[in-house]
Automatic annotation (TrEMBL):
Gene3D superfamilies: Jelly Rolls
Alphabetized GO MF terms: dTDP-4-dehydrorhamnose 3,5-epimerase activity
Keyword Isomerase: yes
Subunit structure of this chain's protein: Homodimer.
Reaction(s) catalysed by this chain's protein: dTDP-4-dehydro-6-deoxy-alpha-D-glucose = dTDP-4-dehydro-beta-L-rhamnose
The family this protein is said to belong to: Belongs to the dTDP-4-dehydrorhamnose 3,5-epimerase family.
EC number: 5.1.3.13
Protein name: dTDP-4-dehydrorhamnose 3,5-epimerase
Pathway: Carbohydrate biosynthesis; dTDP-L-rhamnose biosynthesis
Function: Catalyzes the epimerization of the C3' and C5'positions of dTDP-6-deoxy-D-xylo-4-hexulose, forming dTDP-6-deoxy-L-lyxo-4-hexulose.
Record's keyword annotation contains Glycoprotein: no
Amino acid sequence: MQFKELSVSGAHKVSLEKRGDERGFFARAFCEKEMGAHGLPTRFVQHNMAHNAHKGTLRGLHYQAAPHGEAKLVRCVRGRLFDFMVDLRPESETYQQWCGIELTAENRDALLIPVGCAHGYLTLEDDTEVLYMSSADYVPESERGVRWNDPAFGIELPIAPKTVSQKDANWPDYKA
């Protein structure tokens, strides 16, 4: 596995280290030992999958309030998406900053979102599937969100969203 630090503190792009031959390749998509050696989460209690029928589908930005905060390791297994996060940790040097990367079935990269960051993605192709691991159980009472277009963050998406849920469209302005 290869790790690249991103502009939000604690966020990483995780790339496969492929070993291949004429049959194809083999790579570890997760390794507790390697993740731990980089100071990253090693315990994931849920593995979730989402299917998105149409290009331009936006999901997020979601997070869970303490003490149920969760880190996520997100990978696109079909199609293409722009995955992004906002740092909502007041003690962080990157507080209220955002970053994002393109994840595709072809590049097979993953995005590690640290605890305390809100997460969202925008599909760039029809029929896009996302597989992600969470470090904490989902607790409905702790679910929170911020709007992708909240002026507090200045998030720049590669295309305009076409489909956004009522809940995600109506999160209130972020108050620091």
